Amino acid sequence: MLKEILKMNILGLDTSTEVCSVALKVGQKINKINIPTPREHTLKILPYIDKLLKQFNISISDLNLVCVGSGPGSFTGIRVALGVAKGIAFGLNIPVVSLSSLEVMSYSALKTHNSKYIFAAMDARMNQVYFSLFHKAKTTNNLESILDERVIDPHEALEFVLKYKSEAILVGNGWDAYEELHNNLTSIHNAEIFYPDAEDLINLGYISFLNGNYKSATELEALYIRNKIV
Fold it and tell me: Are residues 60 and 41 in the same domain?
């Protein structure tokens, strides 16, 4: 059973930002494509998947698990990756792991930075940001959520960060999207992680899968947070 798990072929997809991020893990090796394709995710995602499959000389029917970014982010973009993930998982009858784009970016920062608190923010337009707070667990060093994903005004995000500024790190494009945040957080380290990376989506999703946190294709839902499309 353990050997079968280690040999899993896992596809990772995220189109919640302007970057189309696709990765494929075969055994212990991961290849990925991260390319900005604003408004072209629908046209690019399937060719990128096909390119990675060919690099490993496997077919789509060889996949065992799909990991997908469920948002928040661009409403249209989120639906692209979710639609593809749902179609593949349903057609092959394989499980899906869906993860927040904010969580994936925070996980990326966790690998390379020692800060205790990771603040994630993405521009939500309408003078708001998608926001969440994570920290590194003392016993396991794993990523744990302190504040669930939410949409808030920039001044609220600023207040949260300033409470923990000595141990904080920032991820996401939200910190540079509004002058109030950019000008008042120059002393806080920005990890310069602006989009979810499908390689880290796979790595984090694999952990979730091993912990039993996965879904069927029919259970897959988007994490829009806001119910108004902008």
Answer: yes
C-alpha to C-alpha distance for 186 and 190, rounded to whole angstroms: 9
d(CA 61, CA 71): 26
Tokens 């998982």: give the residue. 89
Strand order in the sheet with 117-123: 143-152, 129-136, 117-123, 168-171, 189-190
Residues 108 and 171 in one domain: yes
Q: Are residues 92 and 109 in the same domain?
A: no
Please report which confidence band the pLDDT of residue 53 belongs to, taking 50, 70 and 90 as the band edges: very high
Describe the crossing of helices 101-112 and 198-210 by its angle, rounded to 10 degrees.
100
Question: Which range marks the domain in which residue 90 is found?
Answer: 1-100+196-219
Q: 53 and 167 share a domain?
A: no
pLDDT per residue as tens digits for the range 90-143: 999 999 999 999 999 999 999 888 888 999 999 999 999 999 999 988 777 789
Q: Coil, strand or helix: which one is 212?
A: coil
Q: Using a pLDDT cut of 70, give the percent of the chain over it.
A: 94
Element (H, E) at 67: strand 65-71
Helix%, strand%, coil% for the chain, nearest 5:
40, 30, 30
209 and 171: one domain? Answer: no
Q: Is the pLDDT of residue 230 over 80?
A: no
Q: What is the mean pLDDT of the chain?
A: 93
